[in-house]
Amino acid sequence: MCGIIGYVGEENATPVLIEGLKRLEYRGYDSAGIALLHGGEISVTRSAGKLVNLEQLVERNPQNGSTGIGHTRWATHGRPSEQNAHPHRSGNLVLVHNGIIENFISLKHRLETEGYRFVSETDTEVIAHLLESYMKNGCSLQEAMRAAEVDLHGSYAVAALCVTEPDVIVTTRSGCPLVVGRNEQGSFLASDVTPLLVHTREVVFLEDGDIALLTPSQISVLGANGEELTRETVTIDWDAEAAEKGGYDNFMLKEIHEQPQVIVDTLRGRYNYETGEADLPDLAMTAEELIAARRIWIVACGTSWHSGLVGKYLFEEMIRKPVQVDIGSEFRYREPMIQKDDLFIAISQSGETADTLAAAREAKRRGARVLSIVNVVGSTMARESDGIIYTRCGPEISVASTKAFTGQIMALYLLALHVGRVRELLSAEEGRWWLDQYTALPGRVESVLKLEPEIKKIAEKYYSKSNFLYLGRGINYPIALEGALKLKEISYIHAEGYAAGEMKHGPIALVDENMPVVVVAPRDRLYEKTVNNLMEVRARSAPVIAFGFEGDEELQRVADVVIHIPAVHPLLTPILFAVGLQLLAYHVAVLRGLDVDRPRNLAKSVTVE
Ligand code: F6R
């Protein structure tokens, strides 16, 4: 939810912190703050609203110090306000926190009886007072952090500094991501690698319970008894430029246009054309284990859940295995009848989504093999899974997920091919045929991207409508859901996605001339049925926006406007239609004058349930 950053070194920390926060702002953006330690004093600057407010404050009142921490917040406890913004102070120390302290009320009562006065509405403030109370009793900052961990229930990544220990930042995590790295100018910490890339490519992902001590010249990671731990250093090969907008008006448009490259990158080195097989070395499952898997479970949230639903249609058709798709928050609190030997696939862009992580842990506890399809290298999900397929999309900054969705579906295509070949449901020749289709997809997505001017015209015609209905069938039913989700999250227009065959069972009551109906209608075996649904819509005077195949003249007769995408095998249509619907949602939101990268009330990474 929130983003934290820290720097201790030889340079002025302010620009490092502000630049770092800019790259973390997608994690939450209702307030921000920094704290610097200089000459035995801590200065704290905080501001409600977007980061630019903090930047202006800092410009007007510059602070010095080469040890500092910063935070960009997405409110969980307490309103977005300056008072609730981090860093929070207690006595001689300040800290920043990402996550939720579940037992903060009981801790607050305990600390109040010790005489602490609370000045914010946050759960974070209890951590500050807790550390202070341990330090008052003789602990070092690091010892206080270890002691506080016993008291704290919930999820957190915390970074703290104090006057009595200059040139040191102490940081720890439990359930929230935290990464550290250094260069010759000092040591850095952050919620993820994005802000670190301009400083170093060699980073360490901390594990739950690790305490890291950062000084200008070194980073030590300590275990439960203060023993020094060795944690693997990971080299990140993301280009720092990849996190910039690269000439586009915003990250969302840039990320939509990156999708051909995402397909190329996700396929790269992962197949053998000669044998018609996919090559997934990190799957960590033998052919026998894949064959033995009785059932496939796919669990995810939001857009990633939609890619999971695409996976269901794909797997059932290509590899003839029963597939159950669940939303993370539902799976974790049910009594899912998952068995040992079932294959559990968690899909997540961030690899930190609390509900998906909890579901994966539950599946593991019940004996299933956990495979994750994840974008963020070294994320908690990736580290906790038995096998991984990274989607290689690079950082996705825009809150609305676009390229990650495409990367996830490509990973599912590879997995379907792999299992299909292993189970001998597909011959080498068929495998090669699928590979030809997969490798042709980037060019086909380019063709859809070229339709942007036409799609923009549709947006211009309908952007002022208040409700949209999206329809699709089969493997494109999840694409109708995804199209509606994209529209609602960035344009704030009410939009519903429905299986076209379900329309008569209720939603048709809503259909009138004010309700544009967006339909995804490939020329597949369900085409005629979808066209019939469109006739029903037309009969109620609703404007019909159809996405169909090139050369489909019939669609023209039942729709007000048609976008023609390249004709491909039905199982390969979802990405192409999704790109068209992303562009539609994008242009509607832009025409409504909205900040598409940072929609209200949303955060990029949902690390609490
Ligand atoms: C929608 C969106 C969210 C995420 C969801 C899961 O555009 O971004 O619905 O898809 O929060 O996030 P990950 O994939 O990081 O687990």
Distance between the termini: 11 Å
Main beta sheet: 8 strands, antiparallel
- Kindly state the number of beta strands: 27
Which strand order spans the largest sheet, edge to edge or round the barrel?
A: 3-2-4-1-10-9-11-15
Number of domains: 3
Helix content: 25-40%
Please outline what is shown here.
The chain contains 19 helices and 27 strands.
Which keywords apply here?
alpha/beta, Rossmann fold, globular, Glutamine Phosphoribosylpyrophosphate, subunit 1, domain 1, single chain, eight-stranded antiparallel beta sheet, 609 residues, binds fructose -6-phosphate, seven-stranded antiparallel beta sheet
Report on this structure.
The chain is α/β, with parallel strands linked by helices and 609 residues long. The protein has 3 domains: 3-242, Glutamine Phosphoribosylpyrophosphate, subunit 1, domain 1 (4-Layer Sandwich), CATH 3.60.20.10; 251-449, Glucose-6-phosphate isomerase like protein, domain 1 (Rossmann fold, 3-Layer(aba) Sandwich); 452-591, Rossmann fold (3-Layer(aba) Sandwich). α3 packs across α4, α9 (302-318) packs parallel to α13 and α13 (403-422) packs antiparallel against α14 (428-449). The longest helix has 22 residues, at 428-449. The chain is globular and about 80 Å long. The mean pLDDT is 93. It binds fructose -6-phosphate.
